[in-house]
Amino acid sequence: MDIQLARTFLAVAATGNFVGAAARLHVTQSTVSARIKTLEQVLGTPLFHRGRGGAELTASGRRFLRHAKILIRTMEQAVHDVGLSGNFTEGMTLSGRIALWDGFLTHWVEWMRKNAPHVSLRLDIGFEGDIMEGLVRNNIDIGVMYTPESRPSLAVDYLFGESLVLVTSDREKTWRNANYIHINWGPEFLAQFAARFPEVDTSATRVNIGWLALQLISHLGGSAYFPIRLVRQFVENGTLFLVGKSPLITLPVYMVYPIEHHAAYIDKALEGLRELGAEEDHWQALFLTQHPWDAVE
């Protein structure tokens, strides 16, 4: 199957119409229409309901959605592996939650360049479901996440405890107001927050990416829970303040990889993650020792 057909299908599914897909792919609307028609002929079934409101996936289209993503991911992996230059003898793919890239997995990339310079790296951002699917289908070598699923063929190793602290831009005001930003750090965080603060209304502003919340607080003020790693510098320079007497919420971070991988470079990559995970635990403990939580109500 032509990979462009799958890309076009995903673009239409994401935008909900052929015009938006054409703009995203930098092609004409007629090209998008022709590609979708060809794909439907290949599969022998309609993939979209066309109408004035746009293009809506049919039942067959919804079933093909997962396969299209896998097809593109597999092709990208093949291009990466086959296209290795003479400077690299191995290639691997690591995918992790976006929050774990900021200040943790970026350090792992640096570690790999120093300790395994012969390994070419393909790096992705994803949520747990997509990462686990990629691992099961051998499109991802290592996944780093908060809440992995248990699979018979995959090893799940603890890396470190991600300590999240409640910070505010104004230590003179209570954080329990409409300026609180509720960040979705995953189901474990949401459950712990609800158990500790059942009375707090979280409907004012909700986001699923930490850096967006940081931008909002920087421009508008407010409060939110963040991993220490993301707000350490802001607390130290007085831009943000720890909210005293607020509970620490800890999320375990895991690395997931195939049990039977038989690859020395994967073992090396795992070694680096373990080493940096231990360092992260150390720096978090040091931060909490150096910054006692003065009362802020």
Describe the structure.
- The chain is built from ten helices and eleven strands.
- α5 links the parallel β3 and β4.
- It folds into two domains: 77 residues, Arc Repressor Mutant, subunit A, CATH 1.10.10.10; 208 residues, 3-Layer(aba) Sandwich (D-Maltodextrin-Binding Protein, domain 2).
- With 297 residues, it is of the alpha/beta class.
- Strands 3, 4, 5, 6, 9, 10 and 11 form a seven-stranded mixed sheet that branches.
Unreliable residue runs: none
Distance between the termini: 61 Å
What global shape is seen? globular
- CATH top level class name of the largest domain: Alpha Beta
- What portion of the residues fall into strands of 2 or more residues? 15-25%
Please identify, by name, the CATH architecture of the largest domain. 3-Layer(aba) Sandwich
The total count of helices amounts to: 10
The total of beta strands comes to 11
Helix content: 40-55%
Radius of gyration using CA atoms only: 22 Å
**Would you tell me the structural class of the helices and strands?**
alpha/beta
- What is the average per-residue confidence, as pLDDT, rounded to a whole number? 89
Domains (count): 2
Give the biggest sheet. Answer: 7 strands, mixed
CATH topology of the largest domain: D-Maltodextrin-Binding Protein, domain 2
The SSE order reads HHHEEHEHEHEEEHEHEHEEH
